[in-house]
């Protein structure tokens, strides 16, 4: 019996899609960021060649780091995957907020039947496992790395472990 003032629970598919999107945003972009940073060949900056900058260890390190970051961010092969990756962090923050809210509402105000099995304590391991899986797939796609049998087994065991955690929370 649900009363009219009881907030409705979002369907579990919303959380599954959220987990997948964050896992893809974090995992699949990592190989692209790594390759862009590895292949990046920035131009020399005249400021770094000045005598006063060369004479100061601190100035040379600070200016060098500043120009390295600026050059990478101006490179779309690096900046676009980084932006997607950071967007995944925003989605993750929102997902944690929603999972925590659903859990708290379920414990504090709603009957146990409404408690979503994917509570806050599962959000982090689920998303991190998916990010790992998508990083492995991204490495295969971007760098043509061969996925070894042991890696496949590890990926399957990771998914089984997450499944067991979800099952134990719902039972």
Automatic annotation (TrEMBL):
Classification via PANTHER family: TRANSMEMBRANE PROTEIN 234
SUPFAM superfamilies: Multidrug resistance efflux transporter EmrE
Lineage: Eukaryota, Fungi, Dikarya, Ascomycota, Pezizomycotina
InterPro entries listed in its UniProt record: EmrE-like, TMEM234
Membrane topology: Multi-pass membrane protein
Pfam families: TMEM234
The organism of origin for this protein: Anthostomella pinea
Main location: membrane
Keywords, sorted A to Z: Membrane, Transmembrane, Transmembrane helix
Family: Belongs to the TMEM234 family.
Transmembrane stretches, start-end: 12-33, 78-100, 112-134
Protein name stated in the entry: Uu.00g101670.m01.CDS01
Subcellular location: Membrane
Cellular-component GO terms for this entry: membrane
Residues making up the signal peptide according to the UniProt record: none
